Amino acid sequence: MMSIHKINILGGVALLLGLCGCQSGQQGTGALFQVLDAAQTGIDFENTIVPDDTFNLMDFEYLYNGGGVGVGDFDQNGLPDLVFTGNQVKSRIYLNKGNFEFEDLTDASGLNTEGLWCTGVSVVDINSDGLDDLYICVGGPINESIYPNRLYINQGDNTFLEAAEAYGLADPSQSNQAVFFDYDRDGDLDVYLLNGGGFEKSAVTIRPMLTNGSGRNTDRLYRNDFDPALGHAVYTNVSREAGITIEGFGLGASLLDANADGWPDIYVGNDYLSRDLLYLNNQDGTFTEAAEAYFGHTSHFSMGNSVGDINNDGYLDLFTLDMLPESYYRRKLMFGPSQYDKFQRALQYGYGHQYMRNMLHLSNGQGQYAEIGQLAGVDRTDWSWAPLIADLDNDGFQDLFVTNGYGKDITDLDFVKFRKNAAAPFSSPDEVEQRVLKSLEEQPAISQPNYAYKNNGDHTFANKIKDWGFEAPTISNGAAYADLDQDGDLDLIINNIDQAAFIYRNTLMERDTAAGRYLQVLLSGPEGNEKGIGATVKVYASEQVFTRLQQPVSGFQSTVTDVLHFGLGPIEKVDSLTVA
After folding, report:
1. If we measure between CA atoms, which residue out of 380, 382, 354, 395 comes closest to residue 514?
2. pTM for this structure?
């Protein structure tokens, strides 16, 4: 039985609710998720990377960081549409026609990223006209990017108009992702721009931290300043005055209220030696960095991160990814983090306690976090990128999904040693370079199955790679979830390198309808924040609380659906729902 209601609540925020309670059905067979063929879906996007003698990992170590996935309803037909960003290939947009069939709208839409190294994609209604727009970050294998980020404004007729410069968002930094949120609580959406840059020696050489905003890889904060004459926002870079000044190699950013004061704080995951950051909102337009006061230790090579309540206590937890292999054999072959003396020296320079593994930080709601990644069994997922926190089996507890893989195994100890010893006596620099490039070409890819973990409801997770259908080895980067066929379970969309993108159909509703009870919430906020970004929705039922934060930009370089999904398990009736 399905019922849809629209109600107004808390200062003009509206909700569209979909609640389904199903009768018991037959238990299905096979894996929970089934990858669909491109011939069926019409989605043939493939992020192909072709290195050569002048363009390779030796010149650009972020060569295989990949692209993202964006979910939005661009034609307003009620079905989630998709965007894939490409590095050496054009980004593409696909309209959902229903029944997992999509139409490639790219050429007709005006979305043209030819020649651009695109990274993260943010889906946002930036001009408050009720239409989903696109902000695409641009980076690439050069020291200073000459390609500004792109903003595509939805014209309402399946076309987009590029307008980044007009909005003040044509930032030329090497950006990885943009997070839209209202940091000053004035009712409109500001932007935190995550900058990762390319590889440079300072990323791995221990030196004093750059904390004055002078670093090339310092993130940026843009304030939304509405211009009445133009009729739309013009964004102003307020990074230094706001306290966003610490250099890092950012690969992931999440919003959370770390100190429970009702104002949005920013967690930044940084790669290499640069440490993870927590910018606390001072409620006056400025931020103070305080990661060490809230987190006893963090991931070392931090990739993507995500926020969600994994134990249904009403508080939002944090999941961060690193690159520690699960296999003992691979761990022994891998060049790991710093030795003891380097670790201590990094501590002296203020880089904090960093360890090469995934971290699951459990919040107590009072500004304290307990790291339980090893206890939970989710600390080792190899060279990981996108973490997603979502209830994939509708049992009432949020599960974890992780993409991983890399184009070349450059951390192999034999290869690392070869690079160090490549300069044979009397060799010219060109000879050394060619020797290393030949060895690099012979290195295999790190191609691994993506990870899926079922939440056991007791702070532990069960590995479900096989049972849920993710055994195929891939090089996967950005990922998102959405109910693509509107049947009440979450499907998965994955951006791969050198392989067609994956559309994974969740077969839960066909397999066991008794487990299919769910609630979906679509927020409708006030002008300036039509999606209700930053709102927290809590559902109370059977002495449990289910919590979701409305922040579609999540994981790695990606934007998930803006429809908040609550699996309810055996619960047939919701007692109450709040939005704050």
Report:
1. 395
2. 0.94
